Structures are given as C-alpha cells and as structure tokens.
Amino acid sequence: MKTPMHPLAHLDHQYIWHPFTQMRDWLRTEPIVITSGKGAVLVDANGHEYLDANASIWTNLHGHGHPRINAAITRQLAKIAHSSALGLANEPASLLAERLVAIANPPLNQSGGSSRSAGRERKSPGGELKLPKLFYSDDGSTAIEVALKLAYEHARRSGQSRRPKFLSLAGAYHGDTVGSVSLGHIDLFHQAYTGLLFKSDQVMAPYCYRCPHNRAAPERQDARDYRRCKWECIGKLDRLLAAQQKRGNPYAALVVEPLVQGAAGMIPQPRGWLAQAAEITRRHGALLVADEVMTGFCRTNEPHLQAGQELFFASHEEGVQPDLMAVAKGFTGGYLPLAATLASQAVFDSFLGEYEEFKTFFHGHSFTANQLGSAAALANLDLLDHQASATARAGLIQHLRRNLEGLWELPWIGDIRQIGTIVGIELVRDWRQRLPFPLAQRVGIRICEVMAAHGVLTRPIGNILVLMPPYCTSGEQVARMISVMREAIQQILGKPRR
C-alpha cells in the first residue's frame, strides 16, 4: 500500500515553482521536505536524516544551527530587524563594512599569498586600501549586477571606453539577473534569454581536463597535475585583450571566478593562471572583477593553522587584488541573503559630484544593508577568524583528499578536482578517451537521487558530482558521503570489471 504524501510535500507540489528544475519531473515524486538541521545533518518532515554534502547549495560554512550565529541574530532581533539604507545608516552594517574591507585588503606578496601578521589591521602594500568601499545588495547575482554597472560607468566617465564591453570565460556563470546572465556562456541556462541580453565576449577557460592544447594522455589524477601545454589559454586572453585595446575601445572589465569556475563544472585553474590573467588584463586597460560569490570566505584555501594568517578570498591566493569584488553565499555563514560589491577608490570617485551633475549611482535594493544579515555576517567572520575554524577546515580538506583517492578505481571517473573544500568529480563513459555521457541520460542526476535515498544530499552539474560540505563536517561524515557516492555510481553505471 502506497504511503500518502506528507501534507507539506503536497503543498509544495500544489504551489511552488523550483529553480533550475523541470517541474514535470518534480511533480512525479514526493520531494524531500527539510524541517530542521544541526551541524552537517539535515532532517526532513518524516524524521529522516541526511548529510548536507553541498552546504545547501554552497552557502553554509559552519553547519546548521550554529549557536554563535543564532545568538547574534537573536541579539539583533531584540533591537531591530531592518531599516532602510536609503538616507539612513545602521549599526551592524557599519561594523561589518569595516571588517569586510579589512579582510578584503590583506598585504599581498608578489609570489602569491599573504604576508600579513595576526591582527585586525589588514591593509594592502604601502598601507593603501585597494578595495576601500563596498555596496551592499542581496545575493550573488545582484552583487555582480552592481559590479557591472560600476565598471560600465567608470569606463565611460574615465574616458577609457565610449561603448564599454565585458569579457568573461567560456562556460561562465555569474548569476541570473539580466546583466549577470549577459556575462554567462552556458547555452543551456542562457540561450533562451538572448533577446534580453547585452552582448559580452568570451575567452577560452583554463579547463585542463578537456583542453584541446593539453597533449598529455589521461591519467588517474587531477588533470592539472599532469597537463602538458604552453599556456595557450593565457595567450588567447592576451591577444583578445590586445585586439580590443588596439581598436581604441578596451574592455571595461574581465570578470572571473578566481581559482575555480563553479557552475561551469567545478573547473579549477592551474596555479599561476590567475596572476598572469590579472597582469595581462590591467596591461590592456581593463578592470579585473572577481566573482568571489562561491569561492570566498576560505572555501579555496589550504589554511594556515595560525588564526589571523588566513586568506579569506581566492584572488589573494595568487597575490591578486581585483578592482571590484563580489561576495555573497557564505557571507552570512549561509544563514540570510546578504551580498556586497567591494570597489576601488578610483571606481568610487567616478560617482562623486554635485547633486545637479546626477553622477549618483542609481541602484538599490529594499533590504540593502539589512541588520539581521549583517549581524549574522559579523558572527560568521568571528568564527572564520578563530583557531578552531582553521583547524576544522584543514581537517576537512585532508579527509576529502584521503577518501576521494579510492574513487579512481572506478572506470567512470575521468577527473577528480579538489580546491580546498570544493570538489568536482567528472563522470565519463571511458576515462582513457575522456568520452562524456550525453546529458539526456541524466547520469549525474540519477546518481544524486540514489545518494539522497541513502541519506546524502548534493546536486550535480551535468556529469559532474559536487562535494562542498560545511566546515564542521567530521571525518566519519566525509567517509560516508564518498562511500555512498561510490555505491550510487556503481548502482547506476554497473560494477567495475576486475
């Protein structure tokens, strides 16, 4: 006898339209309805427990129900939940701005990484803050939208470009607002909206596993480690930027996710790519916009175990300081929607003038600088600055690396790429030829459905399985995530031959 659908699942089916979801498929089965969570564990309406293997779509850093973030929100709620940032300032947003600007401006050495000593005073070389201003918004898409508008107007007002254009990487995804979609180059997501968009250019992404210039035969390790190339991707970027500058209309900006492209398939950049790309971009008159929405707040770094010595943003791992930086997702520890776009003084100054000059930045959001989100973000930064968090992240990175090693035994594993606590596992029909599964076969989706049935939740990107658990995830929980993944792969694709 079929169990009746839970009333909450029924309400979901009746009323809710889910993101990036074919609703005809969704309505065929009863959805998992999450009702609570603690640490890395989520609980559904039927009392079943699940490991949160993708940190609730890459947002949750410290686990669900963290007492310090809960307490910070509760304290703020006793004061005020929200007041407008239009014509008013507020306490937590002001304090948060000071903290965020500090961590976004570490002293960087030329070989990459940070040279700062412990302490709150975090300034760029020479004591000058390179990103001294920030504009609050609501999520990653709006943070990128702000960056685009700022870069566009700065290019026009500085005389750099009469008709500003933008450049981004092949496979780029920077959000779902019209401006951020215009930067995107994933046809599956973006082609339907072509008539709404402005044109942006794309340049080859450093996708080592599928790079046509990589002359190395496939091996059972991360493709970045055995690649054989001549940095052709950097050469293409240099030529494209140079050609646009030669036309007398240099790009307004190159927009990149530093170190790893997320929705493109967790595609990591080989070490040195970002630093070279930044130097070339600036040499050819363009700004560098870092989309740190996914990569920010210690996701990509191998932690220094001394508190206060860590790099919070992926850009800084290679000694790169962007001209504009967008942050969101983990900004509040994954608790509340809050985002920010950090800007250089030169960009900020482009919008200064007398009232009647109308140089104001005409952009805003009702919940800009929301007090509850700001309070959560301050607590999040306190946790990230603490020794216990650094130690937990270091342990998580090692647990992932150790347990992932066994997946290479499966013949359908083409590439395993780990960047800090971010993991992408690319599934293929034949690893020796890098042959992909057709997307219509829904291989990644079917494997994740089996994983969910066995208590592990994540979401694939096509044929790439993603692991990005909260920093509090234990070694035992990591082992279970990967064990369940292995079993699910074998259930869907068959047992490997001996």
Biggest pleated sheet: 7 strands, mixed
CATH top level of the largest domain is Alpha Beta
Alpha plus pi helix count? 16
Give the overall shape, derived from the CA principal axes.
globular
Calculate Rg over CA atoms. 23 Å
Bin the helical content. Answer: 25-40%
Quickly give the structural class.
alpha/beta
- Tell me the strand order in the biggest sheet: 4-12-11-10-7-5-6
Low-confidence stretches: 115-126
Number of strands: 17
Do you know the CATH topology of the largest domain?
Aspartate Aminotransferase, domain 2
Mean pLDDT: 93
- Can you tell me the number of structural domains? 2
State the separation between the terminal residues, measured CA to CA. 41 Å
| CATH architecture descriptor name of the largest domain | 3-Layer(aba) Sandwich
What portion of residues belong to β-strands? 5-15%
Explain this structure.
The strands form four sheets. Strands 4-12-11-10-7-5-6 form a seven-stranded mixed beta sheet, with helices on both faces. Strands 1-2-3-16 form a four-stranded mixed beta sheet. Strands 13, 14, 15 and 17 form a four-stranded antiparallel beta sheet that branches. Residues 115-126 have low confidence and may be disordered. The chain has helices at residues 7-15, 23-26, 55-58, 67-77, 91-103, 140-157, 178-182, 187-190, 223-226, 232-246, 273-283, 345-349, 371-384, 387-404, 443-453, 475-493, and strands at 34-38, 41-44, 49-52, 133-137, 166-169, 201-203, 253-256, 260-261, 267-268, 287-291, 324-327, 339-343, 413-419, 422-430, 435-436, 456-457, 464-467. It folds into two domains: 32-65 and 389-493, Aspartate Aminotransferase, domain 1, CATH 3.90.1150; 76-385, Aspartate Aminotransferase, domain 2. It is built from 16 helices and 17 strands. The longest helix has 19 residues, at 475-493. The radius of gyration is 23 Å and the shape is globular.
